[in-house]
UniProtKB/TrEMBL annotation:
Keyword Lipid biosynthesis: no
Name the UniProt record assigns to this protein: CLCA4 protein
NCBIfam families the UniProt entry points to: choice_anch_X
Region (Disordered): 965-984
Signal peptide (from-to): 1-22
Species of the source: Branchiostoma lanceolatum (Common lancelet)
SUPFAM superfamilies: vWA-like
Lineage: Eukaryota, Metazoa, Chordata, Cephalochordata, Leptocardii
Gene expressing this chain: CLCA4
Boundaries of every VWFA domain copy: 325-508
Amino acid sequence: MSRAALLTSLTVAAVLVSLCAANTHTRVTFDNNVYSDLVIAIHPDVPENPDIIDRIKTIVTDASEYLHITTRQRAFFGGVSVLVPETWQDRPEYEAATWETYDTSDVRVAAPNPEFDHNPYVRTFSGCGEKGEYMHLTPAYILDEVPLGSTEYLWGPSGRVFIHEWSHLRYGVFDEYGIPAEGYPNFYFNENGRITVTGCKINTPGYSRNYRTNGRCSTDSATGLPDEECQFFPYLNTQGSGHGSVMYMQFLTPVDHFCDDSEGDHGHNADAPNKQNRVCDGRSTWDVITNTQDFKAPDGTPINTARDVVSTEPTFRIVKARKPRYVLVFDISGSMDSIDDPSINTPRRSLLHQTVYKLVREGIPDGSHVGMAKFHSWAERLTDLTEILTEADRQELADTVPNEASGGTCIGCGLVEALEILSMNGADPAGGIVIILSDGDESAGVTPNLTQATAQLVDAGVTVHSVTYSSAADSRMEEVAASTHGRAFFFSGASNSNSLEEGLREAVRVQNSAAARASSLQLYSNAVKLEVGATFDATVLLDSTVGENTEFSFGWTDETGVEWSVTSPSGTVYTNSSAEVSYNHQAKIATVKLAGKAEVGSWVIHVQNPSNASAQRVVLTVNSRPSASEPPITANAWLSNSDLQVWPPRAVVYAEVTQGLSPIIGAHVVATVQGPDNQQNSYTLQLRDDGAGADLTKNDGTYSAYFTQFTGTGRYSVSAAVTNPDGTAQLKTSVAGSAAPFQDPSKMPVSTTSYQPVETFERQSAAGVFQLLDYKPGDGFPPSRITDLEVVKVSYSDRTVLLRWTAPGDDYDQGQASQYDVRMSSDTRSLRSGFDRAAPVNGSMLTSGSLSNPVPAGFHEYIQVLVPLSDDKTVVFAVTAQDASGNTGGASNFVSVTFDYQDSYGEGSEGGSGPSAAMIGAIVGGVLGAALIIGVSIVIAVKISSGKTRIREIRITPRDNFGADVDLPPYSGPKGKMDATAHA
Ligand SMILES: *[C@@H]1O[C@H](CO)[C@@H](O)[C@H](O)[C@H]1NC(C)=O
Ligand SMILES: *[C@@H]1O[C@H](CO)[C@@H](O)[C@H](O)[C@H]1NC(C)=O
């Protein structure tokens, strides 16, 4: 049918976008080994400084060359746009931006995120091989003005750092070094029981130190591994050998490639407990990269294969940002006269009129350029693009909102009309935003049809956000949005859903941080069906970060109106007769507008349906602007993708909760999903920030969960509410040195994370729509793969290992699994190649915990395993979960422990003064003893005595703390700015 036709008619890039989850906004294309349309955008708050542009050119030019080398001649940068803010002065070399915007850019130059300081980092929340959101670079990083020292000294050459981050962003590969703060240790036990540095290729020469004190590392008594502050320091001045990897230590001169599946210098280390292995299930970064759509056609043939080129130098355009331009396009076909709920005698066109009237009056930020069109069998322009500056502009636009219905449905006509509005007077339509609402299938035989119009909009660089009204809406609406990098929303028509208003409001704010900042935040949004005489009360919390220009709004459906009141925390009552109320009889809306700062605390909203004849649909919203003193708490929700074409779908709901750039953790985040049947049914889903299931990173303020409760083919509208009912939410401000590996770890900002309690608050955000195209009954969803298996404690004396992981559910990360299968082996390779053939851990081996009684998803599972005696030095564990229908999730990440130890070292040796009380019974074994660096073949070898008899008590001397000492000089890395080749 037309779906296939549409797909083939679009450009390859657009098709890729619609198939990829997550980042839908990038417009970077990749053809004939060249990345084009990369956008590097400077945030409006960055002070004007043209040097930033020159430095960007240098960095990206170096990066392009390094990309060509590290992808083995497969890729480099071609066309790059640098977007400067509107506030910067005009210069002859600046062109006007067309499609480029800050919010859809790939690389963002903005003030430091407190969590990462000047570390370059990539914002990502999606999985292995999937695109991230954007790369963040600070102006000081770009200008080489970081207070700690030269950027090259700290992180290595900027072009290389750029490619490290680019690889996160474009290819969905992850760090190969340890990140203790995220649960990836810096060291682990290899299969010979030796402590090994978490990395890719393991023969990088260097030594270990406590990065804070520059002294010796101590041992974590629970795991036997070096403590979290213990860092590996590579030798920067060793020759050739000891390749790292682009995702490991890109600053080491010999690093010229990603780790791959070969045995050579770039051989991938699948055993390291790093994020790459965890998220990508032990795959090498090069394997992941070459399997992305950039390097592999859908039929599996390699594309963009190696090619020698004369120059890898990119070309730069400098473009200056423009004001946002919106065109609102409304369906006025005959079906808009339908009444969704017979007991509420209101046609769709009236609900649409009410909602859009309110949007135009209250939801569109000042300074926007807005046009409007309507369509049925053909389209008509309602207004040209008009700048919204005054109340009168706003009212004029509001008075133009249609409330009519007749004729057929030519969605393509509406889209092409919008394109014409954006193109008037010879303007370039690129970068314009079309928000289109439609409730039906496109009529047969219309011209231009949806397929043709979509192709035109894709060509023109226009973004379409689609809002579908009713399940009967054309199934291609989500695809129009995906093909044009837009978002999709859905309103079923249910009387208890306000997703029409929420979707339209979000469509205005999304991908437009200027609009988002200039418009108010949604604190509360609800629709209720009030029977004759019925009342409804709600409490809404106003926190101290908002309160300016607060608006309480009521919408209703019957001529009799509603009786309502709003009561402030101190008891002031606002009603229909208060001076602060504006009232529109035609749109059936009343709004209390409080100028200045409203009282912080609980406001009570009361509403009653006074009609003795008719039930009413009543819409209640509370919006408020940030109070000037501090950044507001914000919540933004979105979905992995809208079109779900395969069964079972991986449908993820995300919500990011932040204050400024700092994450808020511990909040209560609940998504509400309205199903396709125009019933009152809704499903709720708790989103978690626990680094398990759908959630990629723990405690980053992004909460995630899979939605699995599908009941049939059709659309599911999703919105998220964020609250802090028990005061568990905390603002996390931290300085983590882990966003990019430091060339000189002793210069790493000392990782400090502080948590401040957050007041009670509430926020609401529309996430969008899942359109499920192929529902199949039955339990199609396995438990999700466990990715956070960890060793909590090892006991040598008992040979027990305490393991912990976050429980998955019956369906991905929802519900409750029915049993676990834990396996063990002496090495990861055999476990990876044959999980089912590895030795099972059975119930009789557990000294605590259970394999057959899983806790609900999201809770911690603990088991203690008594490991049978064997000659294996290392034991590797992995776990899978199964549901009651026999669906099994994939094997978890692997963890290793070692039972290899010496029985008597330390005794009698110099400085040995008997056992240290604090450490008796601690585990550790092979960890202790002075570490040696042996050539380049192993990172850290531990002096091991020949004594292998197993004893009950281990005696430890403090002298023997892990780490190099007499054998090695203290770190004396390069000082000051360094020539990249100086230590080759
Ligand atoms: C849209 O129009 C084109 C050109 O007339 C036609 O080939 C195509 O089949 C139409 N698509 C649909 C879904 O009607
Ligand atoms: C609210 O006030 C307006 C304007 O004064 C009035 O027309 C309307 O009837 C009132 N509505 C109710 C329900 O009292």
